[in-house]
Specification:
45% of the residues lie in helices and 14% in strands. It has 352 residues and is α/β, with parallel strands linked by helices.
Length: 352
């Protein structure tokens, strides 16, 4: 697709995206089939041009608090699925407060409160509301919640306590693949939760998982499904086989597919937030993802943190390098900077 394009052609293509050009099915198919390294770099260049038009060299940073690793679900890809015999934790309120205090003064734009579908918090959403209250008291920052599927009443309560963003990944819009990944879970209830959250004032994040049997056509189904939902933040993550899960013997693919999809997401959602997660390949992986068109760094944790993450490539690493100062230093070495909090608040519609 980009084979014979020079820099001027690539700049013109980026401008057409900025002017509102939509990618066709054939465009998506052609991009997702790219394997040539030169053509891939041209794709990433176009994605960066589009991103920089809207965001310049500014990046948003989210700190991550995985406050419960209990979960009632049987997701085939997830280390924390209820069938896996692992050590789990549920942070107490003071533990959460201490994590927040370690983040005071750091260049963080939002705190992401993440858990499995912990029956304790799902049955007692007022306890989850207290967690949000603690973050607001200690840091006075926007809060993202990543709690799995909550009912309308719980989402309303948490919004009233100050939750700004709901992260709830569909993983795939290919219904057959969904059944294999999110075992026993409703496809439509997941969509409803995001739609209801948007209706009552949340920003929402949707996400895709790649490397789990999704071919090009399955990926296109997911990209189109995500576009119909029109979320404020869109992401893709590479599947990492997790010990003790049904998919632990699967062969992990390279990050090639994820990087391509990040660029495609930038072309499809030019002015949206697109994360580069530290949870898959750490700080060096962050660089690849930013260079593919991402503009958010997620899964930042305090320097001495032992908090778990979703993929946790660095679970056994002594030096995790996912703290705010390490991230900011790496960004500056790339010619990028943390954005102003006011810029992020405008995206959320938060009144300072």
């Amino acid at each position: 697709m980009f084979t014979n394009m020079d820099k001027n052609d690539l700049d013109a293509y980026a401008q057409r995206i900025i002017n509102g050009m939509q990618l066709s099915e054939d465009n998506l198919r052609e991009i997702l089939l790219i394997t040539d390294s030169t053509e891939l770099e041209k794709l990433h260049y176009v994605a960066r041009k589009v991103r920089d038009h809207y965001f310049g060299n500014k990046v948003f940073l989210y700190s991550f608090v995985y406050f419960s690793t209990y979960c009632k679900n049987r997701c085939a890809f997830c280390y924390y699925n209820t069938m896996n015999k692992i050590n789990r934790y549920r942070l107490g309120f003071e533990d959460i407060r201490n994590v927040c205090r370690k983040l005071k003064g750091e260049q963080i734009h939002m705190v992401d409160l993440t858990m499995g579908e912990d029956p304790y918090f799902h049955e007692n959403p007022s306890q989850f509301a207290k967690v949000i209250d603690i973050v607001k008291e200690e840091l006075d920052l926007p809060v993202m919640i990543s709690p799995g599927v909550l009912d309308d009443d719980a989402l309303t309560m948490l919004r009233e306590h100050g939750a700004n963003f709901l992260a709830l990944y569909q993983e795939t819009y290919d219904k057959e693949l969904y059944r294999n990944l999110r075992v026993g879970q409703s496809f439509s209830e997941r969509i409803h939760a995001r739609q209801f959250a948007q209706k009552i004032g949340y920003c929402v994040e949707d996400g895709l998982l790649t490397g789990v049997g999704n071919d090009v056509e399955s990926t296109i189904i997911s990209l189109r499904g995500m576009a119909r939902e029109d979320p404020q933040m869109v992401r893709v993550m590479t599947f990492i086989p997790q010990e003790g899960t049904p998919l632990e013997k699967e062969v992990q693919e390279s990050n090639l597919s994820e990087l391509k999809i990040i660029s495609v997401l930038r072309l499809m959602f030019p002015d949206r937030l697109i994360p580069a997660s530290l949870d898959v390949e750490g700080i060096e992986g962050m660089v690849y993802r930013l260079n593919a068109g991402a503009n958010v760094v997620t899964s930042i944790i305090p320097s001495d943190s032992s908090l778990e993450g979703v993929a946790n490539y660095d679970r056994k690493h002594e030096e995790r390098k996912r703290d705010p100062k390490s991230v900011v230093a790496k960004l500056r070495s790339m010619g990028m900077e943390p954005a102003a909090q006011s810029d992020f608040n405008k995206i959320l519609g938060v009144v300072a």
